[in-house]
Amino acid sequence: MKKINLKALSKQELESFIKELGLPSFRAKQILHWIYEKYAGSIHEITELSKDLREKLSENAYISNLELLGRQVSEDGTEKFLFGLEDAETIESVLIPDEDRLTLCISSQAGCAMDCRFCLTGKLGLKRNLKSHEIVDQIISVSRTIKPRQITNIVLMGMGEPLSNFDNVVDALWRITEFMKISPRRITLSTSGIVPKILELPKKAPAVNLAISLNATTDEERDYIMPINKTYPLKELLTACRKFPLPARRRITFEYVMLKNINDTPEDAKRLINLLKGIPSKLNLIPFNPYEGSEFERPEDARVLNFQKILIKGHITALIRKSKGQDILAACGQLKARYRVE
Fold first, then answer.
1. What is the chain's alpha carbon radius of gyration, rounded to the nearest angstrom?
2. C-alpha distances out from residue 111 to 92, 132, 286, Å
3. Helix, strand or coil for residue 228?
4. Phi-psi region of 136 (alpha: psi -120 to 50; beta: other; left: phi over 0)
């Protein structure tokens, strides 16, 4: 008989499995607690269960774990983790320290199909969607590795387009909030702009924060940088943002990767002010993170500062986001899962 992966089961599936084994229903709650809050890597680590019960469970089930293939630490303290999946595909997660926060950037797909021109991950193409437990397992694996430090925030900004893997991502978000007890306020999902799924997200998922990878102020610019814009142009995308139901005191984050002589002009800044009018928002300006073979360059600091000044004058909250982990290709748009440590 093929063993059941307890981590792959939903709460209802786990309860049914426990019942089939002739065990009381409260055992399911105990197992969930040990997997998602105590980060048990095997059934034998669940010491709340008797040795005989652990043996019985181990005959029928197991707890899967991501394989840590590599860990790199940047000079600024950012850490990048390379994980192997059960089918030998690989993904990357990035741990970003910032004063009192410790943010984990997780992947939702192995590779990515969006093909944004500035993004190294997009050059991989899409290998496959991650299952919901593989998305969550990045948090569990990193949490277990960095003890006693604790992750405070989660961002779905790693490899892949989360809304292209909608059902698994939604299930993962429920697991993170219900089983791991992480507040939706501390979770941010970033999308390149799949409009129907943006509108569906608040109906299906916990009320997490929304971030939009915008990166251009005209359809012509955005078509060139981000092919998704040909399907969901700026007007449709921003209309969806205006319709998105925001909890009190929350804003949509717009991410704007600045590319030298492409989208960094004063005219772009002025258009941005008009585009974001009426949307409770903040803007993260991200000067492009270069990598070998890229067609784009990073704008000069003075140009970035001038861009920010115009936005602030237009009453837009605009922050220049300091890119971390560039020396280990862990910054925005640099994940590729292309190295393997034996």
1. 21
2. 10, 16, 22
3. helix
4. alpha
The whole-chain average pLDDT of the chain stands at 93
Token code pair at residue 155: 């961002």
Residue range 44-101, pLDDT digits in tens? 999 999 999 999 999 999 999 999 999 999 888 999 999 999 999 999 999 999 889 9
Euclidean distance between CA atoms 149 and 291, whole angstroms: 31
Residue 72 backbone class (left: φ over 0; alpha: ψ -120 to 50; beta: rest) = beta
- What would the DSSP string read from start to end of 45-58? G-TTS-HHHHHHHH
Residue position matching structure tokens 């928002």: 281
Mean pLDDT, range 14-40, rounded to an integer:
96
Mean pLDDT along residues 2-31: 95
Coil, strand, or helix at residue 185? helix
How far apart are the C-alpha atoms of 112 and 115, rounded to whole Å? 7
Rounded Cα distance, 123 and 152, in Å? 31
Q: What is the DSSP letter of 276?
A: T
- Please count the residues of the chain: 342
- Whether 157 contacts 147, CB under 8 Å: no
- Please state, as a whole number, how many other Cβ atoms lie within 10 Å of the Cβ of residue 39: 19
Percent of the chain with pLDDT over 90: 85
Residue 122 has pLDDT above 80, yes or no: no
Task: At 39, list the tokens.
Answer: 């980060």
Burial class (CB in 10 A: 0-12, 13-18, 19+), 158: buried
**Contact at 8 Å (CB) between 307 and 269?**
yes
- Look up residue 139 and give its amino acid: I
pLDDT value of position 332: 57
Active site residues: 92, 332
- For the whole prediction, is pTM greater than 0.85? yes
